[in-house]
Amino acid sequence: MGKTVIEANVPGVFYRRPSPDEPPYKSEGDTVEQGDIVGLIEVMKNYIELRSEVSGTVIKYLVEHEDPVNPGQAIVEIET
Amino acid sequence: MKINKLLIANRGEIAVRIIRAAQELGIRTVQVYSSADCDSLPVQLADESIEIGPPQAIKSYLNADSILAAAAKTGADAIHPGYGFLAENPDFADAVEAAGMIFVGPSGDTIRRMGDKASARETAKAAGVATVPGSAGSLDKPDEAVSLAEEIGFPLMIKASAGGGGRGIRIVSSIEEFVHQAPQASAEARSAFGDGGIYLEKVIEQARHIEVQILGDGKRAIHCFERECSLQRRRQKVWEEAPASTISQKTRDELCTAAVKLAVAVGYRGAGTVEFLYEIPTGKFYFIEMNTRIQVEHPVTEQITGIDLLREMILISAGKPLSLEQDDVVVRGHAIEVRLNAEDPANGFIPFPGTLGNITLPGGPGIRFDTMIYPGYCIPPFYDSLLGKLVIWDEDRTSAMRRLRRALDELTIEGVKTTAPLFRALCRNKDVQASAYDTRWLERWLSTNAASQIV
Fold first, then answer.
1. Do the beta carbons of residue B67 and residue B9 sit within 8 Å?
2. In this prediction, does ipTM exceed 0.90?
3. Is B293 an active-site residue?
4. In this complex, do B384 and A66 lie within 8 Å of one another by their Cβ atoms?
5. Which one is the CATH code of B5-104: 3.90.1100.10, 3.40.50.20, 1.10.1740.10, 3.40.50.150?
6. What is the pLDDT of residues B352-407, one digit of tens each?
7. At what angle are helices B142-152 and B175-193 packed, to 10 degrees?
């Protein structure tokens, strides 16, 4: 059992949901496959998908929905 | 009415442009800013500045309550919304007036009327301005639409009445396809928007985007001729010119007259733009929409007419009648604007926020650069990618193209990628040199040439 942290790849605003009235991509305890989308980062009106590089289980999100984020910032912890 | 203190409810290059216009009129300025913009050029240039919230636009530049509170606190008596953000929000315009201030723009009712696609179309028709052939209103029964579809002709678009921003659109090219798709479109609209209403619109292929700048004082309206804005990527203009060099004088007169008719019909107050699609094979033009704001590309009109549109719109909002008669507006020469965005054109136009290094701006006759950048400025990731507009004026289009090439060669912006290499490549292109393009030309060209020619 290990722990992997998915980091922001671009600066911007982080979103956990694809749109305001849809459920979050992932919640704590959810299973994640490598390549799954775990959030969106809005950078200059473009939405960049943040994908998991590993398979495992979501431990927790380290930033809130709509928080500003910087590149390299830890976004979500995944137990592998 | 007199404006003593103007609050700028925007950011970036347009905030700088508004501050400059206000300062020349002897009006004090208040710049609102998000916490991401505390070091921005408009904050430095304005007489006063006030923070209105965190970086996210929804919590700052789109936060009407916060902006109105800032206006009250600083004693502003007018608000200029710029473009984007709250510029075409009728409730904001109403709220500014309800708070006893001047909204630099048309009334909330005018924004409402022209902002709704269907009502804008009806208003244009009533004013005798041609609209894209289509169904008059919403069609609730797809069956009834069949005869109308045949009448309009193919290809045509089935649009969801409640859709918008490109959502809920299907293109069909035959009656069989239409019969098959219309019920689906209606069902899809019902589930996506809670409203199964659809309407039909002819697809105008091979079109140019031509728009007319108008100024009105609520009683009288004039035009300041047209702009040609067909070079677009993802429906975003990247290069604009004035005048449109490929239309006849007769077409120009008709377009401009139609735009003024529409402005007069709605009692338009302020600066506005009436957008048309010009069908190249037939030479027909159709109203598409009216923008009730100052537009990004307004400088090309200023360069060919010598009119300061920002100054005019501020004076009109302060209750002054239009200072110009139609005959006072005369075109001289040709202007081209290119939008320098912080994007990498060689890599799918990915956004490129970051900190700027050295900057060399082009100079000499006929060159204007509207921007908020300076060396060391950090372009935040939270807003659009526009970092400046290079605007060229010269005696004619051929000379303006040469001057643009020269200006782009002088320009350096270090620290981020910009769209400058795209414009250098376009300057070398024969079609662009000949002004032989439609609204889809740039995307076609990019899909085949971007990699090899944008260097």
1. yes
2. no
3. yes
4. no
5. 3.40.50.20
6. 999 999 999 999 999 999 999 999 999 999 999 999 999 999 999 999 999 999 99
7. 130
